[in-house]
Specification:
Structural class: mainly alpha
Order of helices and strands: HHHHHHHHHEEHHEHHHHHH
Strand order of the largest sheet: 2-1-3
Pfam family, one: Cullin
Radius of gyration: 26 Å
GO cellular component, one term: cullin-RING ubiquitin ligase complex
Protein name: Cullin-like protein
Number of strands: 3
CATH class of the largest domain: Mainly Alpha
Largest sheet: 3 strands, mixed
Family: Belongs to the SKP1 family. Belongs to the cullin family.
Strand content: under 5%
GO molecular function, one term: ubiquitin protein ligase binding
CATH superfamily of the largest domain: Cullin Repeats
Shape: elongated
Distance between the termini: 34 Å
CATH architecture of the largest domain: Up-down Bundle
Length: 368
């Protein structure tokens, strides 16, 4: 079934709004992640004119811009001095969570669309650049004035929140690193130096030693620790069949790993793979088990791989699509290599005959 841009984006907006409304701890489940990831994947892999990678990349950027303009900037503009610093750090922390989640959901663009478009920043960098251009550029001077005022208070013997100052200074370094720009840290050091030698020595030490406190909730951090066969997870195929596998085997799929990491409960028992049939999922699991817990030499494993892909071309096509969807690079490369070997040196007509493709090229093209 073809998903239109409007239909698909409506699904995405519902999920994204759920994330934004829940910041800083969005109640986002692995099921919700898989729905959004699958929607993006499908919209990026449909045949033209229904392949929407470029449009989705633009909408990804627009999502950050609209949220910043409607929510972040108004909240900052209504605060000043110490309250501004606190609000900035909250908004920056939320932005990192938002960027991490959305870049995972849209990750298919990072894998295929962005590498094809020279010069495009990654999804994570795109998210951080939106904060840089829309927030940092507007508030950098006001924030630094607030920092310097607090240093003044400290010099006057008044108590200040040292951690707040440290984190506010570290923000300049962190946003610079996130966007691969040197000017934020340089701006902070220059502003402090212009005040006085004392400020420069003191402030530079703070900038150099400050480690931005990681306010990212546990929901966004790795929250599974079982290894080996100590924990199981059920993978559900498009046919509704359930396959129980070890966690470490399932985690060979980056898609499954991302789905687990984004669930706030840390207790994911099932992952639905709506684009993978039971037959193919069984083969994928077999491959992952063999490669995760290989009890054979490299040569024997290579021989096993050769036999594994010695199947009908329709199965190969299903395997390459499923390994792409599940983001298992080694399997994707193995199957893609097999298909490449099958068509190497053949004409378009011979390839069409090999794969039973009809009415796709003229007789002249077939003979070329």
């Amino acid at each position: 079934m073809v998903i239109s841009l409007e239909e698909g984006w409506n699904v995405m907006q519902d999920g994204i709004n759920n994330i934004l409304e829940g910041l800083p701890e969005p109640q986002f489940t692995s099921d919700g992640y898989m729905i959004l990831y699958t929607t993006i994947y499908t919209m990026c892999t449909q045949r033209p004119p229904h392949e929407y990678s470029e449009q989705l990349y633009e909408k990804y950027k627009e999502t950050f811009e609209e949220y910043i303009k409607s929510t972040v900037l108004p909240s900052l503009r209504e605060n000043k001095d110490e309250l501004l610093l606190r609000e900035l750090l909250i908004r920056w922390s939320n932005h990192k969570i938002m960027t991490k989640l959305l870049s995972r959901i849209f990750c298919y663009l990072d894998r295929f669309h962005i590498p094809r478009k020279w010069g495009l920043p990654s999804l994570e960098e795109t998210g951080f650049l939106s904060f840089y251009h829309l927030v940092y550029d507007e508030v950098k001077k006001q924030v630094m004035d607030a920092i310097l005022a607090m240093i003044d208070w400290r010099q006057a013997g008044e108590p200040i929140d040292q951690t707040l100052v440290n984190n506010a200074l570290a923000f300049y370094s962190e946003i610079g690193e996130s966007t691969r720009r040197n000017d934020p840290k340089h701006f902070a050091e220059t502003m402090i130096k212009e005040k006085s030698t004392f400020y420069y020595d003191e402030g530079s030490n703070w900038i150099a030693s400050s480690i931005f406190m990681d306010n990212t909730p546990e929901v966004m951090k790795m929250h599974y620790s079982p290894t080996g066969s100590s924990r199981k997870i059920n993978l559900i195929s498009s046919d509704g069949d359930m396959f129980e596998v070890d966690y470490d085997v399932a985690l060979m799929s980056k898609t499954i790993e991302d789905a687990i990491e984004t669930d706030p409960t840390g207790d994911v028992n099932c992952i639905s793979l709506s684009l993978v049939s039971s037959k193919i999922l069984a083969m994928v699991i077999e491959y992952c088990k063999k490669h995760k817990n290989a009890q054979m030499s490299d040569v024997d494993l290579m021989d096993w791989d050769v036999e594994f892909v010695n199947v009908h071309y329709t199965t190969l096509f299903d395997l390459v699509l499923s390994s792409n969807y599940m983001n298992i690079n080694s399997l994707y490369n193995l199957v893609g290599g097999k298909i490449g070997d099958m068509i190497k040196g053949k004409t378009a007509g011979e390839i069409a005959q090999l794969f039973d493709i009809k009415d796709v090229c003229t007789q002249e093209e077939q003979n070329q």
